[in-house]
Amino acid sequence: MAEGGGGSALVQGLPIWADIILSAAVVTISAYFAGTTLGIFTLDRIGLQILSKASDDDKERKHAKTILPVRERGNWLLCTLLIGNTIANSFLSILMAGYTSGVLGLVLSTTLIVIFAEIIPQAFCSRHGLWFGAKTVWIIRVCMVVLAPVAWPLAFILNKILGREVGNFYTRSELKHLIQIHVENSEHPVESGLSKEDHQLLSGALDYKDKRVTDVMTPLERVYSLEASVRLNFATMMEIYKSGYTRIPVYEKDPQEIIGILYTKDLILVDPDDELEIRTLVSFHGKANAQYILDITPLNEVFLLFKSSRTHMMLACTLSEPAPGLPSGKQGVLSVRSQQNFLSKFSKKVTGVITLEDVLEEVIQDEIIDETDTFESNEHSVPVVRRPGRDRPDVSSYLALFEHKIRDQNRLSPSEVQAVSAFLLTAVPEFAIFASVETVLKGLVRQAEIIDTEASDSDGDDGAGSPGPEQQLYVRGQRSSHFTLVLQGRLVVHAGTEGFQSEMGPWSVLGSKSLGTEPYVPDFDAFASGGCRLMRIHEDAYRGALRMGKADKIVGVRAMRQLSQALDIMDKGHDDDSQGRPAGRSPPKTPNHDAPRYTSSAAQYHGHVRQLPASPSAISEGEAEQEHPSSGQGLARRSHSAGSLGGRAQGDSGREEPSGQSGVPPQANGAAGQQSDAFSSDLKHVV
């Protein structure tokens, strides 16, 4: 061994500090090759292609594009890195042999190589291999050129024996599990960007092709269908609308003999009075839309068939006998290619219907519920539960407005009352005060006057005939005390000095100012054009509802019940006075311990009416109904005292008029009195 130098022949004559520097450089080179080998080869070609085109990080996308050309030469790159690492480790052992020997040399060289040339670089590059490889790719290119005489022949032999590297590909089940890992990984939920809803949607898209028509179709016994001879009168059309379906199969005598599809939108121009047979409407285009599909067809082929056929519903069927030349269980193969021609050659049996919505529900793994659906699922007859709120569409409430066509009634049905009350609350400012006491508003609407007018015989084709007196609702310059809501039909209004004519359709209102504090005199004439259905509310009934609503909010339900009982006692006393008692004689005095209490409650009520706050708190309708359950006697109760109460409250409002100068015809006062009495009786029944 030379003095002051290393003992190796390769480095003989070098000072010890130079040997140390050289050894550190060799360890660094070995560490580079070891770390690069692990860092780059953990990124397969497919992964790098994904990162280079779809990464959300611009730096990652740039690094992947830099490494990908080198990574494409898999075996050549592998041989280069391994040969370089081996040379570096061997040279390090030679350097260490000149200074150590035996066990000490083995331990020292192993420690340097394992810790500094293997563990540390590989641990770093396993996490930052993409960044490190992109920054040092030029070194890899130089090494590949320098070691090409040895590395390239070895790579060529490996390619011939093992084949070229393809990359990692996943099956559908592996992809599902990979997505699940990305969703359920609690350590990096934000990095993946996938939610449980994404997992559900992606899994459904991967699985739906494994399902067949029989798995998602609606069986024929649960299909809503109509017989071809049924006439489209109003009752039938209401039944169709309430069913919630937009496409309805039509059959001839036997449900198996489906002749076409009835589209609900085609009923828009159908007049129920014509009572057309359904087969007449279906004959135009419904038969062409009755397309069949084998019930063993996979859903992915069904989806393609829906796209090509431009229809949203098909009839699922099965062949009555196996098709010749077609193996059993393979009949779904022809579902897309010439399916209609194929099925037309064989007898078939309808087993159900399938819609495009059924296929999409399997993809998104959830039920699609629209505004007209009545059930959540075709498999389970679970009715749709609508969330409360007037801002949500309620088809049943809308259709209830037309039910008077199929039944005779002078009052609105409960569903009609609900729909009209909701409209008045949101569209007519005069009724917004009832927002917190909807029970009172519903009672007012329930007792409102319903007017059904018939078409005038004098009406011409243009509807400009001379209407009769019973069809004129408002007279220019004559005081009116009614609010009118058009439920059905049209009103003709003549306004202005020249009598400009306009029309008002359903859900139009007239005379809302008559509900104010000042007398209302219209400056127009209004007539009912043809058959109309109108709802009218008299100003007295409206003010009675206002008083009852305000008292309901202040006094409470219990005091309102005491007030109702007090009014009954006053009714009874009035009846006793009118039953033939001689004039000038007082009624016999009988002890009545309850009368003072009821009288006090009534006085308390009137005191509160005079001290109404601006926005009192409301009580719920459910509390009122729970506190005072309805009884049949309340509906039959006479309302003389309620009429008296209305007269007293009218005095409170400061709108007393001289006798004979009210401007309201006697018959109008009589009708208004009956409406107010009926409303007061109904309110007493409510409280």
Automatic annotation (TrEMBL):
Residue intervals passing through the bilayer: 20-43, 75-97, 103-125, 137-158
Cell location: Membrane
Record keywords: Membrane, Transmembrane, Transmembrane helix
Bias (Acidic residues) ranges: 453-462
Region (Disordered) location: 453-472, 571-687
Gene Ontology CC terms: membrane
UniProt GO BP: magnesium ion homeostasis
Topology relative to the membrane: Multi-pass membrane protein
Stored InterPro entries: ACDP (IPR045095), CBS_dom_sf (IPR046342), CNNM (IPR002550), Ion_transp-like_CBS (IPR044751)
Residue intervals of the CNNM transmembrane domain: 12-198
Claim: Transmembrane helix is one of the keywords in the record: yes
Keyword set includes Transmembrane: yes
PANTHER family per the UniProt record, alphabetical: METAL TRANSPORTER CNNM (PTHR12064), UNEXTENDED PROTEIN (PTHR12064:SF94)
Protein name: CNNM transmembrane domain-containing protein
Organism: Coccomyxa viridis
